[in-house]
Amino acid sequence: MEQELHEECGVFGIYGSKNAANITYYGLHSLQHRGQEATGILVKNEHEFTLYKGEGLVSEVFNAKKISQLNGDIAIGHVRYSTAGGGGIANVQPLLFRTMHGSLGIAHNGNIVNSNPLKEQLEKQGSIFSSTSDTEILAHLIKRASGRMIDRVCISLSQLEGSFAFLILMDHALFIARDRYGLRPLSIGQMSDGAYVVASETCAFEVIGAKFIRDVQPGEVIRIKDGQLKSTFYTKNTTHHLCAMEYIYFSRPDSHLEKINVHTTRKQAGKILYEEAPVQDIDVVIGVPDSSISAAIGYAEAAKAPYEIGLIKNKYVGRTFIQPTQQMREQGVRMKLSVISSIVKDKKVVMLDDSIVRGTTSKRIVGLLKEAGAKEVHVRIASPAIRFPCFYGVDTSTVEELISRKMTIDQLCQYIGADSLAFISEKGIQTAIYKDHPQGLCMACFNGRYVTDLYDNEV
Predict the structure, then answer these.
(1) Are the CB atoms for 289 and 300 separated by under 8 Å?
(2) Domain 266-314+325-435 sits in CATH 3.30.70.260
(3) How confident is the model at residue 3 (pLDDT cuts 50, 70, 90)?
């Protein structure tokens, strides 16, 4: 996995539980893979909103004492990796807004592509922004809208273009919403005591013992109030274009997106990749941990070759992607991954990975395998080549940094030092994911076909 590839964040919410903050902590912990830079929890009781947030991992920011101080039966939480708006404590979510007519809390996964023109419009109308996050725009829009609260939320959401899964905590209700394209996932579950939960991924439900109810539909707003769900749509102009990278890399293998298991799709992608780009006389198939393991198992099964754990991930190393120099990043790869020499020595190895962004990490891993004695290293990538930046909440670098934009596959193969290199096709990944559920996918980072207007964002 290329270290420069990051998802923006994950959201979790709960309505109707005396242990709201505690459950939110565990929900966020299960979503930690979606963002390791910062986290926060906002709770609501009869009298007040209480917010605590900080920079770091969930377990670093919160402890038992802090959780015990977050009293309330409704809560929303967030884990963040900053893209739009950058870092800093002001941008750590949830964001809390206090007004004369009540308070409002928001947690957001995604990216608003028309944020700049909306901010300019709002500032001309007198709005003052306290952060650089595009999430804050929604609060200003809701405040300026009129009518019933559900109408104000719908009017505000209809002005946003881009990707989002929003949790909006009001004085007496929790609103949840998904963008009209379905770019970002969002699911609803229920606890045994009747409390409703909502999360970016269903893996969060398993941890807290909640039962999956359903996915939030593109363009849908659901109000949870007085223990009841009420659904409406802020637009009729909806499509299904869930981000393909959610299946390929971002989501946990035990999650279900649109009722489709992530591990199953990755394993199927590995099988299809063997059909498209077979390697003969394989000694061993390995995967780059963790997100490529499922694809490696699928490739090995299709090839009738042994699958082995050839690379070990040190999960207790710090977040090396923040290191400032390329030399330190490359050392970080060695700290994070080590090779089991006895598995690869004198072997013809097929190495599965989920993506190549800059190519530096792949080059280093191939080098580690050959240093360990691998006779040949054939690299297979379980996603199409990333040639275009993402504007929907995924950090896929700039065009200049996307190595597949600058090099042919043969040139890239030579650069990373592999004996051969192949990517799965767009048709292959579409088949792996939606073979029995024909829907659309956003594959803009592969083919440049963006599902929205880009406004002032440049490809």
Answers:
(1) no
(2) no
(3) very low
